[in-house]
Specification:
Blueprint lengths: L24 E3 L4 E3 L2 E3 L3 E3 L2 E3 L2 E3 L2 E4 L4 E3 L2 E3 L1 E4 L2 E3 L2 E9 L4 E3 L2 E8 L4 E3 L2 E3 L11
Parallel strand pairs: 1-4, 2-5, 3-6, 4-7, 5-8, 6-9, 7-10, 8-11, 9-12, 10-12, 11-13, 12-14, 13-15, 14-16
Length: about 130
């Protein structure tokens, strides 16, 4: 009548959010970092950084994510707010809730409907000569 579950079975869960690789860094909503930050892995930012941020891999910024300072990374998907300069060595993707106030430098850029930016925008390979991401 009733089947008992084997101890080796793991419960199935439904996860609508994309999985984050285990070697990624997560800065959760409600967290504020004052000062500069550097990371070699992907970063998921839902909190706030008040200072400069340098990521050697990808920056994924949620709607609650915010940076007041300079951001450098290789790839990015932005839903939050940046007040300062952003430099992306590859693709900068501004999703529908993104807002950037300041200088943008990227090799490639995609802007979704609803996203906005205000400031100088330099797109293309020519803006990255002798400008490695640190």
């Amino acid at each position: 009548m009733f089947k008992s579950k084997s101890k080796n079975e793991t419960p199935k869960t439904v996860n609508s959010a994309p999985s984050i690789p285990s070697d990624s860094n997560v800065i959760a909503s409600g967290t504020t970092i004052e000062g500069s930050i550097k990371a070699n892995q992907d970063v998921r930012l839902d909190g706030t950084i008040l200072g400069d941020a340098s990521f050697k891999q990808k920056l994924v910024m949620g709607e609650t994510g915010r940076v007041e300072g300079t951001v450098k990374c290789n790839e990015s998907a932005i839903k939050g707010k940046i007040d300062g300069e952003i430099s992306v060595n590859g693709l900068l993707h501004l999703l529908n809730t993104a807002f950037i106030k300041g200088k943008i430098r990227a090799k490639k850029m995609v802007v979704d409907e609803g996203a906005s930016y205000s400031g100088e925008c330099l797109i293309g390979e020519q803006h990255f000569k002798n400008q490695p991401v640190s």
